[in-house]
Design brief:
Helix content is 66%, strand content 0%. 27% of the residues are buried. The protein has two domains: 1-91, RNA polymerase sigma factor, region 2, helix turn helix motif (Rna Polymerase Sigma Factor, Chain: A), CATH 1.10.1740; 93-177, Arc Repressor Mutant, subunit A, CATH 1.10.10. With 177 residues, it is mainly α.
């Protein structure tokens, strides 16, 4: 997006309006993504706020190789991880790799109902992150790997295992509609 590139350039020069435009463009997707990791809205708001502060402070380190949103989500994930570590919660753990295949269902087809929300909360943070980033937000496995600091095949494996878990749970419990 050329407009976004212009905003990034101007924000690097200290233009507050350009940074506000970047904020306005990305705050809702970032909030929606981080919301998958806690039921506490205030906690998510804090992560989002700290993410944008870090983004503003370190905008010069954004090199443009990845999408700006990928970089921003990485900062958000790191803020969440640091907060969890401070709270003595377990950080992301390693997941074994295996050959898998997957297909995206796309955000327009993905409906969250209360049952699915409960099931998502039951997933560990890594599985939840990969599933939401790929299936809901539409990021590629390469982008997810960069955000989470794992290999692409690990991202594929995690997604495959998560889908299998959700399908099995659906078969066993069903989604109430």
């Amino acid at each position: 997006m050329q407009e976004e590139t212009l905003w990034i350039s101007k924000a690097r020069e200290g233009d507050q309006k350009a940074f506000r435009a970047l904020y306005d463009l990305h705050v809702t997707p970032l909030f929606r993504f981080l919301r998958q990791f806690t039921s506490e809205t205030a906690e998510v708001e804090e992560w989002v706020q700290r993410t944008f502060v870090k983004a503003f402070e370190h905008l010069g380190s954004f090199d443009g190789r990845a999408r700006f949103s990928t970089w921003l989500f990485t900062l958000g994930i790191n803020e969440m991880r640091m907060d969890r570590r401070r709270a003595q919660r377990a950080p992301f753990g390693p997941i074994a790799e295996e050959d898998v295949s997957s297909s995206s269902i796309g955000p327009e087809e993905f409906e969250w109902d209360e049952t699915m929300r409960v099931w998502m909360r039951d997933l560990d943070e890594t599985k939840r992150a990969v599933f939401v980033l790929y299936e809901v937000e539409g990021y590629s496995h390469a982008e997810i790997a960069e955000m989470l600091g794992v290999g692409e095949s690990t991202s594929r494996t995690i997604l495959s295992r998560t889908k299998r878990y959700l399908k099995d749970r659906w078969r066993n419990e069903g989604i109430k509609r």
